[in-house]
Amino acid sequence: MDPTGLYEWAATCASGDEQCEQNRQRFRDALTTVRTAAEQYQEGSEERVKLEGILAKYGKEGKKNRVFISFGDAGGSPAQESTSVLGKFVLFGARARTITFDLGVIDKSIENRNDDSKPSIEFAGLVAHEGSHLFDKNLFGNPVSYAGSLNTERTAFSAQSLVNKGLNALSEWGLWNPSWAEADRDKLRQAGVEHEAKRDADRIWGKK
Q: Is the Cβ–Cβ distance between 100 and 73 less than 8 Å?
């Protein structure tokens, strides 16, 4: 694993801010869950390599590598990424990636469901999803076409699905269901990934 992939917090918790500390612990726990899911796959398999690559991209806590984790409003979505330029020159300045998780939106979406999806695993899936976007590379880290958005979302939802698949846990996003017949599981997982990727790409580009 790449030892240089390291994240830090976007802001410092105020003294005595228990909610801030709880949010951070949920993120730490989510990374542990992603790691547990990765370990369910055979070493060297495509699934394990993908999840371990995402964990390496996040890396260890508290080291400066221009990946920041934040909690709060994500524009109505469960999570959102933004890219900023560090330094004076746009073309040559280092770029920082901030991932913001809206735990209120995430928790509400799960509370409103009457199924067996597990909040901790669903959050871990989202952490894997957003971690996949850390590999999206261009000037400002965002796709410049509908096709580009569809491709990056497809890759991210695929990574998210692997958390649920590895732990054989129901996905509220339709990415995995333990009740699927063995022969149909991979086909249904891919269909779920494609459906969610298209929905996100349509939303990003204002398509109905």
A: yes
Give the domain range for residue 142: 7-204
pTM for the complete prediction? 0.89
Q: What is the mean pLDDT of residues 58-62?
A: 87
CB 116 within 8 A of CB 94: no
CA dist 185 and 146 (Å) reads: 28
194-208 pLDDT, tens digit per residue, is 999 999 999 989 886
- Asked if the structure places residue 53 within a domain, the reply is yes
Q: Specify if 1 maps to a domain.
A: no
β 94-101/7-9 pair status = unpaired
Q: Beta strand pairing status for 79-86 and 94-101? A: antiparallel
Q: Is residue 143 part of a domain?
A: yes
Radius of gyration over every alpha carbon of the chain, rounded to an integer in angstroms = 17
Question: What number of residues does the chain have?
Answer: 208
Q: Are 61 and 7 in contact (CB under 8 A)?
A: yes
Residue 57 covered by a domain:
yes
Q: In what helix (H) or strand (E) does residue 84 lie, and over which residues does it extend?
A: strand 79-86
